[in-house]
Amino acid sequence: MGSVYSSGRAKRDPKSDSGRKPGSKDRKKAASASNKGKKSRKESILVLCAHSDDQVFGLGGTLAKFAEEGKRIIVVIFSYGEKSHPWLKRKVTVKMRVHESHEAAKIIGIDKTIFLGIQEGRFQQEISDKNIHNRINSMIKKYRPKRIFTHAGDDPMPDHAAMNRFVLELCDEIKYDGDVYTFDVWTPLKIKERNMPKLYIDITDTFRKKIKALKAFESQWASMIALLWSVYWRAIRNGFKAHCRFAEVFQKIR
Ligand SMILES: [Zn+2]
């Protein structure tokens, strides 16, 4: 079933396009030739994450801000996160996850969400078996992202940590010339102990969108609501450091 919902579907599904209408947008683009060049060269951001809600928890406010600034955002979700609902049939969970992610993408302004369908708990093996290396490499060539965001290397969840290793290896191998940042999902930040440069993004204006997007994950809401305090607490703590109300923090690792 994995292939049904993989990148092919994401391309055809207009919902994956943040609710934008390609037709009218295209006409607008064609109409102003001078802007066209600028628009097609607008900055791309690539997010590589393990589960369908990691991008919202980790950097939902930042992505919403980038979207408002006109940046093009592509999110690649490596798994469907089907293990969270073991009592449901895989097909049902996958559909639900894809739907919720697209709803969250609309709220945040994510242009494209691509699922790779890797099995949870088997990231390292499946990344190599399914030749994910080549797929991500061709996405980087296609979208030419200026910045890539992925999980932190010291994340205690093995799938998150495996993604960090994979992304770093790939970027080094292809000599990726943009910036690579990491984000935390649940980990209490040990950021003080890390020596890498930090990037604080003021998300005061988009924090509400982040919370709204989290609410789009209805199937996980019961477990999420208990953790919501930490989303607030971290945003406030990072905001204190960045001299604003709410902020998200990243580490620049390349
Ligand atoms: Zn995750």
Question: How does this model look, in words?
Answer:
There is one protein chain. The protein is an alpha/beta fold and about 250 residues long. The radius of gyration is 18 Å and the shape is globular. The longest helix has 19 residues. It has one domain: Rossmann fold (3-Layer(aba) Sandwich), CATH 3.40.50. The N terminus is likely disordered. Helix 8 links the parallel strand 4 and strand 5. Bound molecules: zinc ion. The site of zinc ion has 5 residues, from loops.
**Oligomeric nature of the chains:** single chain
Mean pLDDT: 84
Number of helices: 11
Cofactors and ligands: zinc ion
Order of helices and strands: HHHEHEHEHHEHEEHHHE
Superfamily (CATH H level) name: LmbE-like
User: Which consecutive residue ranges, at least 5 long each, have pLDDT under 50?
Assistant: 1-22, 28-39
**Which fold does the CATH topology refer to?**
Rossmann fold
Per CATH, which architecture?
3-Layer(aba) Sandwich
Spatial arrangement of strands, main beta sheet? 3-2-1-4-5-7-6
